Amino acid sequence: MYNLINQYSLIFTSVFFVIIFSLIGLRFFSAKYVLVFVIVSLIAMILFQSIQKNSNQDMSSVQSFENIRSSGSPYLLYMYSDY
User: Of 43, 68, 69, 83, whose CB neighbour count within 10 A is largest?
Assistant: First the structure.
């Protein structure tokens, strides 16, 4: 569960802020403008999350890392620890 929250924390935080801004926006604008804002914001957040998500998580062995490292193309080494 923690990994799921950590993986989608950007989405959860953004949805929280969209809700807060929508409630504040309802006081100053009509509901249709707020609805358009919410829909556009949700679409932008989902697109940003899908662009930023790393789809290549098949790094299960040292050999696969060595193949990527020796390929000559740029690579990003991301190390994660719970501590």
Answer: 68
